[in-house]
């Protein structure tokens, strides 16, 4: 098991959280907390870079949904970038690929 790390930075489009390691029931609350702490101003986007994510269980997916719902309620957006193939496949099978904005790069157009 790889420990979960979340590194925060800023992009012109909004905050960027780089998530690495294993996202599971023991640490999914850390992702939710980091997303809330990122403070995304209305009209901007929180970008989650999942390129170094090693594993994601159902608790991790639930955390992603909770983050998205929190941001939508606040009038902001969420983009998932560099989603590992295994997680992309799970999102597709569950229909969540239609809910999340999935992109290859965190270089988003600015408004």
From TrEMBL:
InterPro entries: Anti-sigma_ant, MlaB-like_STAS, STAS_dom, STAS_dom_sf. Residues 16-111 form the STAS domain. It comes from the Bacteria. CDD domains: STAS_anti-anti-sigma_factors (cd07043). Belongs to the anti-sigma-factor antagonist family. PANTHER family: ANTI-SIGMA FACTOR ANTAGONIST TM_1081-RELATED, ANTI-SIGMA FACTOR ANTAGONIST TM_1081-RELATED-RELATED. This is Anti-sigma factor antagonist. It comes from Streptomyces thermocarboxydus.
């Amino acid at each position: 098991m790889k420990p979960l790390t979340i590194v925060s930075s800023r992009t012109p489009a909004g905050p960027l959280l780089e998530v690495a390691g294993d996202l599971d029931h023991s640490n999914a609350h850390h992702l939710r907390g980091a997303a809330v702490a990122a403070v995304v101003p209305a009209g901007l986007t929180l970008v989650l870079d999942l390129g170094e994510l090693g594993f994601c269980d159902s608790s991790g997916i639930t955390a992603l949904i909770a983050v998205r719902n929190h941001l939508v309620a606040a009038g902001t957006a969420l983009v998932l970038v560099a989603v590992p193939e295994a997680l992309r496949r799970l999102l597709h099978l569950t229909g969540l690929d239609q809910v999340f904005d999935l992109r290859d790069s965190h270089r988003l157009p600015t408004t």
